[in-house]
Design brief:
The protein contains 5 helices and 13 strands. It is mostly beta strands. The chain has one domain: SOS response associated peptidase-like (hypothetical protein yedk fold). The radius of gyration is 19 Å and the shape is globular.
């Protein structure tokens, strides 16, 4: 079951984005091996609890499960959006943990282990955010102007039920465990703050190697420095557009959700340099 229309956690940022590109194209862009089986479909309204594409980098294991410390492999993996800590008694906790604040993740029991050793990237074509107005909330869609993928910083975790004396999982629904993820958020930068005070922590390509390195701890300068809000240069490469309130419902899913809303239909229009023109691609 999908969560309510607006689901936020840990210093609210709305949990919706678009993931349109084919896994093979994402793998090429992120220099990764596609381990999704090619099952990913265009999703114009990704919501919590859905399966999402992530980019991870791990030491490959041999037939006995022993990792090779001399090499790493970057791959695309499907995980469920909504992080379930390894110590959680019930996977339902993940529905609330879709976001983690970059400023405090290192001190939160639910996120600190993943930040230290299980970081990932979550590719997106763009994300939705809602501006609060006097009469209603106006959704905006933010993306790179050149159409390249956004790399949202994420954390992933592995959960498997312990002994089950109460027979909570009679159908053995998690025989191989459950892999889940959360999106890191940061303080919104520049004009984006007029829409919402939080935004996804978007990392430029120059930061991907350090972020994904499984051997670099969270307190290392190479990683700690990435937990700051995105640079003004990165924000300048973005555009945002007002879109239809149809995106409010997770039942709606299609390219029409990305269409710019006519000016006369926009609730309290913004005057921003980042706003797309009348016919954005």
């Amino acid at each position: 079951m999908l969560p309510p229309t607006r689901t936020c956690h840990d210093g609210p940022m709305c949990g919706r984005y678009a993931s349109i590109k084919a896994p093979a194209d994402i793998a090429e862009e992120f220099r990764a091996v596609d381990a999704t089986g090619g099952v990913g479909q265009p999703d114009y309204n990704v919501a919590p609890t859905k399966q999402i594409v992530t980019v991870v980098q791990r030491h490959p294991r041999d037939e006995d499960g022993t990792p090779d410390p001399a090499t790493t492999q970057r791959s695309l993996r499907l995980v469920r959006w909504g992080l379930v800590p390894s110590w959680a008694k019930d996977p339902k906790a993940g529905a609330r943990m879709i976001n983690a604040r970059s400023e405090s993740a290192a001190t939160k029991p639910a996120f600190r282990r993943a930040l230290n050793a299980r970081r990932c990237l979550i590719p997106a074509d763009g994300w939705y955010e809602w501006q609060r107005g006097k009469s209603r909330k106006q959704p905006y869609y933010t993306r790179y102007k050149d159409g390249s993928s956004l790399a949202m910083a994420g954390l992933w975790e592995y959960w498997k039920p312990a002994d089950d004396p109460d027979n909570q999982y009679p159908d053995n629904q998690y025989p191989d465990g459950l892999v889940t993820a959360a999106v890191l958020t940061a303080e919104a930068v520049g004009p984006l703050a007029q829409v919402h005070d939080r935004m996804p922590l978007v990392l430029p390509p120059s930061a991907w190697d350090a972020w994904l390195d499984p051997d670099t701890a969270a307190d290392a300068e190479a990683v700690a420095a990435l937990l700051a809000p995105p640079s003004a240069e990165l924000v300048a490469a973005l555009e945002l557009r007002p879109v239809s309130p149809a995106v409010n419902s997770v039942r709606n899913n299609g390219p029409e959700l990305l269409a710019p809303l006519p000016p006369e239909d926009v609730a309290e229009p913004l005057q921003l340099d980042l706003l797309a023109g009348p016919n954005p691609s």
